[in-house]
């Protein structure tokens, strides 16, 4: 009976530890959400400041250099009031230290480039005669010398015409090459 009581006690401790870990995870998610909200608000504030500068430059009667200087000074003063970052957490509240993921950095933002556009490959001079087209391969009996595909290969998209075309391209390239 003594062993069953210790098993119940150990199970209760594990359950309490799991609850504590779940609460800590929820708190960490709340902190992340708050940081993201603060960053978004800072971005909006920068946009508002830029729009205010543009409006001031457009409608003010004063010198543009003076307006830019005052704007730069106000931006410098606001940068001194930077929001302090949360300290880096390296252990749970129970005292267990993190072993994995403590060095994880957020994924870098990747700027998207232009969309992919297909361009047909340029075939260099083969130094030989042009190989037959796929229609000529099918109609002139070239496929008699190539293993035919089975049902499984057909289902996978394999046809025997492309390997036959490749073999003919390899055989005919370089025939006219003179060293």
Overview of this protein structure:
The protein is an all-alpha fold and 179 residues long. Among the domains are: 2-80; 134-172, no CATH class. Helices cover 55% and strands 0% of the residues. It contains five helices and no strands. The protein has helices spanning 2-59, 64-80, 134-139, 151-155, 161-172. The N and C termini lie far apart (94 Å). The model has no long low-confidence stretch (mean pLDDT 81). This is Jg15238 protein.
Radius of gyration: 35 Å
Structural class label: mainly alpha
The tally of strands reads 0
- The general outline is flat
For the report, how would you describe the main beta sheet? none
Number of helices: 5
DSSP helix fraction: 40-55%
Point out poorly predicted stretches: none
H-E string? HHHHH
The end-to-end span amounts to: 94 Å
Beta-strand content bin? under 5%
Estimate the mean pLDDT confidence.
81
InterPro entries: MAT1_CAK-anch (IPR057657), MAT1_centre (IPR015877)
Protein name: Jg15238 protein
Pfam families: CAK-anch_MAT1, MAT1
Keywords: Coiled coil
């Amino acid at each position: 009976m003594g062993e069953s009581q210790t098993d119940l006690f150990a199970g209760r401790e594990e359950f309490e530890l799991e609850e504590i870990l779940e609460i800590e995870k929820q708190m960490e998610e709340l902190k992340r959400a708050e940081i993201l909200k603060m960053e978004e608000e800072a971005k909006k504030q920068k946009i508002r400041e830029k729009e205010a500068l543009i409006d001031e430059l457009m409608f003010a009667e004063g010198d543009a250099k003076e307006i830019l200087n005052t704007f730069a000074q106000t931006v410098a003063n606001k940068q001194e009031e930077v929001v302090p970052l949360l300290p880096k957490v390296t252990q749970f509240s129970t005292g267990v230290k993190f072993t994995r993921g403590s060095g994880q950095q957020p994924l870098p933002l990747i700027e998207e480039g232009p969309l992919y556009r297909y361009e047909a490959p340029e075939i260099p001079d083969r130094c030989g005669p042009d190989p037959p087209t796929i229609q000529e391969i099918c109609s002139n009996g070239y496929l008699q010398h190539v293993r035919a595909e089975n049902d499984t290969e057909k289902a996978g998209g394999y046809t025997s015409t492309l390997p036959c075309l490749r073999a003919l391209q390899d055989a005919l390239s370089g025939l006219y090459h003179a060293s």
